[in-house]
């Protein structure tokens, strides 16, 4: 495990300490959890983007402007 030093303002520090106490954990654990969430979210976003690109490529579909409302709702 790697150690990280952070510099944050006093108001944020107090709020983080209060939140950590409410959750019966440490500020370090809160920071670790937040960073893990950010990196997992970013990884999931990239995986989803790759899947979308694969679907577009494999279907031969084209991405473009949406037809006008009248054209979309025209009755045959």
Map the helices and strands.
Blueprint lengths: L9 H13 L4 H33 L9 H4 L4
Report on the structure:
There is one protein chain. This protein is mainly alpha-helical and 76 residues long. It has a domain at 29-58. Helix content is 66%, strand content 0%.
The biggest sheet amounts to: none
Helix content class? 55-70%
Residue share in β-strands: under 5%
Contiguous runs where pLDDT drops below 50 for at least 5 residues: none
How is this structure best summarized?
The protein has 76 residues and is mainly α.
Features:
3 helices, 66% helix, mainly alpha, elongated
